[in-house]
Design brief:
The protein is α+β, with helices and mostly antiparallel strands. It has three domains: 5-15 and 35-81 and 121-291, Thrombin, subunit H (Beta Barrel), CATH 2.40.10; 301-394, Pdz3 Domain (Roll), CATH 2.30.42; 411-505, PDZ domain (Pdz3 Domain, Roll). Helices cover 15% and strands 33% of the residues. It has ten helices and 27 strands. It has helices spanning 40-43, 66-75, 97-100, 138-141, 278-291, 315-324, 362-369, 422-428, 443-447, 466-477, and strands spanning 5-8, 76-83, 87-93, 109-115, 119-127, 133-136, 146-150, 156-165, 170-174, 196-201, 209-220, 232-235, 247-250, 255-264, 272-277, 301-305, 330-335, 350-354, 357-358, 377-384, 387-394, 415-419, 434-439, 454-458, 461-462, 483-489, 495-501. The strands form five sheets. Strands 10-11-12-15-14-13 form a six-stranded antiparallel β-barrel. Strands 2-5-6-9-8-7 form a six-stranded antiparallel β-barrel. It is globular and about 75 Å long. The chain starts with a strand and ends in a 7-residue tail after the last strand. The model is unreliable at 1-5 and 11-34 (pLDDT under 50).
Amino acid sequence: MKSTTKFILGATAVVAMSAGVAGLTASYIMKPQQEQQLTFDEMFVQDENMHLASFNAADQQLVDLTGAAERSVHAVVHIKSTQEGKTETVTVRDPFYDFFGDMFGNRGGQQRQVQTPERVGFGSGVIISKDGYIVTNNHVIDKADIISVKLNDGREFQGRIIGADESTDLALVKIEGEDLPTIPVGNSDNLKIGEWVLAVGNPFNMTSTVTAGIVSAKARSLGVYNNGVESFIQTDAAINQGNSGGALVNARGELVGINSVLYSPTGSYSGYGFAIPTSIMTKVIADLKQYGTVQRARLGIEGYPLDNDGQLMSPKLKKKAEELGASEGVLVEIIHENSSASGVLEVDDVIVGIDGKRVKNFAGLQEELAKHRPGDKVTLKVLRDKKEKNIELELKNEQGTTKVMKDNGMDILGAAFRELSQDMRRQYRLNSGIEVTGVTNGKMKDAGIRKGFIILKVNGQSVKTVEQMEEIVKSASRSTEQVLFISGIFPSGRRANYAVDLSDGGEE
């Protein structure tokens, strides 16, 4: 029997319900928070003349896709992402260490410098604003040092990352241009099963390729984003590696999804592709532009879907569903403390709707929650004691608050860092660590950390590079505790431990 593989489409490439770049070496002053939350349409100005207002696919016996294709190809770009070669320090183990121990003071190994090769990947992107904002997949530009964007007319631009979100596999890239072609953004909620769609992108590095198919299913979950937000549009429009980040377009020429995942036993197209719906994309991209990170609301439950895409439920779960009188929805098994659901939902509640929309499974619930920010109020329809009940609740973030969270990154620390030189490693007999090369106003100074301090571990993890430090800081800023426990050594040899509070990074 052949096994089927799920591919994320780049060329190089429990359930706490969720509504939601290279290392900086210096401190930056954070921009003041905008008082008013802007909508997607307010932030990204599109060409109003691009809508095919006179065309109604439902009134046509034969769907003409030529107009939609002609307009779409000009707004879909080719993206080349380059990771430059880097010099890395590795420890080569001495084979005599196992027999003779550390007789010569080399601690079991020697430091060697290794040159990593340059890596180049290709994908697609969609221009959503005349001034050069582009939506693509996170995996297309992840870890890129250089981003090159080529338009359909041959013009090339240098791109910079505005923000990226691993949980939804979306990213926002900016190029400097004016009056660029755009695709009008449609509402994926209005898509119907069987409706014609176009996939526009650059498969196998071939530019401006258009394929056609129909919407095969909605609210699909594949488990490829490691507990991220998944509610894919499934289509049989042919997509392949390089289509990542490209456009899924309806017959009116409106963007309804971002192509992302290929489901195939071979690695090439063999029936179905999956796109991130614009109902998720618009909110995520607007957050990335306004805040630098996604304002992700969490319901704070764990449970089971009673409709799991046709897969058979366990006998135990099936019996439970019969006892509760439910045939679909999300069964609540665990409610986390201080979450949106705490004190409102009950164990064995079955969520069957949100804000008037039917909920069949986790994917559908995720999609609806992904449209909201912490502080928003939603109405859940739950099945409790075999009776439907409407429950209103206020959504909270991962920290159990309604604060606006900023993408703190390294700037909140108010410090600059660099990796230890080989001489310093040898001097202090260290295999890891980064040096604090400067401290200004910020969290590091508040905690008492000074210039020259060598950071060895952060939150229990050994730190070898500035990039590792950045990832730990980002993870900690999104956690409930929002604290860094730092251990290290001063040039004098004195060891020290510090607790760095990150909790003031958000705003009410």
